[in-house]
Amino acid sequence: MNAEPRADLLPDGMRMLVVRQPWALMIALGFKTTENRSWTTRHRGPLAIAAGLAWDTAGEHDPRVRAAWRRFAADLARKQQGNADPGPYGVAGQLTQSNLWFDRGAIVSVVDLDDCHRWDCTDHGQGCGDGVACCSPWGDAHANHWTVSNARRLPEPVPVTGRQGLTLLTPTARAQVDEQLARTAEALPAGGK
Ligand SMILES: [Zn+2]
């Protein structure tokens, strides 16, 4: 897909993008800050990341994903030290499609879409695809790099039906996302991120 579907016809505001697991969780946890797409967008600002239904086996075996998952698992284990019953989300578990952490068919986080550029652009000094510039290590060669920040993982993933391209959320899904974002922001200490 090369064209951005209907994006120019949509009003400003939050958009939704479907990303397969395990990549969607990598974005939600703040590890993956570049999404690779064959197409570009002019949208900037809030972007809801919906985990698709399909599991990406290539992602499961990707060394970047595996390294991030190991870091996450170790960090979570440290936080849960001494907790006799950490609950199902208190342990990371295995990087497999049956793991609860990898919700599917639902919006799992909201990020800010900051930029979109070609992998071989020279805006940042050198092409990103050579692994030395802004999008290293998540930016792939021969893709458009969507750079994101401010990942906010939703405590309760919001079920949605996946659609191709960049879409608006249904009013129901949008209300559920907004409510969770407001609740998460309140729970953070002042100045927290
Ligand atoms: Zn890049």
Write the layout of secondary structure elements.
Layout: E1 15-21, H1 23-28, E2 34-37, E3 45-55, H2 57-60, H3 63-79, E4 106-118, E5 144-159, H4 171-187
Parallel strand pairs: 1-3
Antiparallel strand pairs: 2-5, 3-4, 4-5
Structural summary, described in words:
The protein has 4 helices and 5 strands. It is α+β, with helices and mostly antiparallel strands. Strands 1-3-4-5-2 form a 5-stranded mixed beta sheet. The N terminus is likely disordered. The structure holds zinc ion (ZN). Zinc ion binds next to loops. The site of zinc ion has 7 residues, from loops.
CATH homologous superfamily title: Hypothetical protein
CATH fold-level label: Archaeosine Trna-guanine Transglycosylase, Chain: A, domain 4
Q: For the largest beta sheet, what order do the strands appear in spatially? A: 1-3-4-5-2
Shape summary: globular
Topology pattern, helix = H, strand = E: EHEEHHEEH
Number of helices: 4
User: Mean pLDDT across all residues, rounded?
Assistant: 87
Radius of gyration: 17 Å
Work out the count of structural domains: 1
The CATH architecture assignment turns out to be: Roll
Could you estimate the helical fraction of the residues in percent?
10-25%
- Spans of at least 5 consecutive residues whose pLDDT stays below 50 are 1-9
CA(first)-CA(last) distance = 35 Å
The CATH class, by name, is: Mainly Beta
The proportion of residues in beta strands is 25-35%
Number of strands: 5
Ions, cofactors and other ligands present here are:
zinc ion
- Give the structural class: alpha+beta
Main β sheet profile: 5 strands, mixed
